[in-house]
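Dear colleagues,

For the upcoming journal club I promised to circulate an example of a predicted protein-ligand complex. I picked one with EPZ because it came up in last month's discussion. The inputs are reproduced below in full, followed by the predicted structure.
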Amino acid sequence: MSQIVVTGSTSLNGSVTVSGSKNSALPILAASIMIDETIVLNNVPELRDIFTMLSILQRIGRKVSFSGNTVRIEPGEIVVGNIPYELIGKMRASFNLLGPLAVRCGWAKVGKPGGCNIGQRPVDYHLRGLRKLGFRISEQHGDVIAVSPGSFDDFVHYRLPYPSVGATEQLMTVASLMKGSKVVIENAAREPEVCDLQGFLNGSGADVRGAGTSVIEVVGKDALHGTEYRVIPDRVEAGTYLFAGLATLGEVTVKSVIPEHLAVPIKIMSEIGGIVDISEDSVHIEVSSPLKAVKVSSEPFPGFPTDLQPLLTVTLSTARGESVVEEGVFENRFGYVDELNRMGADVKVCNRKAFIKGVSGLSGAEIKAPDIRATAALIVAGLIAEGETIIHEAGHIFRGYERIQAKLNDLGAVIKVFPDEDG
Ligand code: EPZ
């Protein structure tokens, strides 16, 4: 995997334009398999996970192209209803093709995703929900097989045990094509990406309401039509650069964002010592005083997003006082802390809580990165640290941050990337 070398003692200064949301584009691309007309998707980030999803769509029979952040999907006979584990293993979000494939083709077989570095990541909420919708679900040799009942109940009510983003997205997508059925999903996830998926589905002729609240209602149609749609900006990328500006005591403006998608992270950044100015589609941060300790728990939207938890912890590692960061969504999302402590931080993790004692500074070291957001956080730690930091197994970063080396270097960083054979 790639190595990233970060030059330390760097304050970031300048502005950066945020790309389209990976976590919005992926469920939209999964939903596209239900539509037999041309789809044009704009503002799609050029990321490995996007290309993984596009290669799966091609394998199923779709003709796809990617140019200038626009994806074009032409209809084509779906030639296969199964997605092998080797592709699911590369990107868990492809599991969201199970339901759309089954409702479109009558059946589907998809490798059951395994865990990853941030947790077990089961799919039981997806499967329970699909069964409630009427699908026959079975598991064989590590695959999940879903068979459509052909006709659906007039009314289905399902309460999710937890506001799972992926399960909400999979169920609202499938329900869109359950002709003659009204489906009510309670305890739905409220993330902006769920709202974006609703926008795409309705642009294709679906009837989905309530996204952004805990109750989503869908009236199933017998067919959806082609459409052109623009993906929302990536709030996690935006929050990453704002935290990087705060952590390095710099001054950063993120452009092409939707500020209300960042309301809680901005509030926390202000409590830590950031001065934040918000305009219609940009957010500016600079630092007023030494960074201060806070206590934060990550939660489902609209709470503090789990995907920014590593960035928050790194920012607090040199804040004055003792902070506590609780991971309220995943069971194992502090895997990067041991590496951060090797750079001189003082963080103790107990169960899902990180107890952070602010230190006067960090020092560069050779470290390794466990996942997308942790890699971004360790790059920020490298910017703060004195000396050079070498991050091994850093290839995760290219799954979630478009042109991150260029964007950070434009902000004054000195980041070098050494891709190896498998990148
Ligand atoms: C989405 O993952 C995002 N990924 C994640 O971003 C994000 O961290 C997460 O939502 C939470 O916001 C995409 O959108 C592609 P969940 P998802 O289902 O849908 C448990 C990134 O870095 N759970 O809301 O998989 C699960 O284990 C990624 O961009 C079950 O137990 O998240 C977790 O503890 C990381 N059973 C919690 O629910 C299920 O069937 C939330 O998971 C499903 C989930």
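Two points we might discuss: The pocket of EPZ is lined by residues 23, 26, 93, 119-126, 162, 164-167, 189, 306-307, 329-330, 372-373, 400 (CB under 6 Å). The first strand starts at residue 3 and ends at 7.

See you all on Thursday,
B. R.
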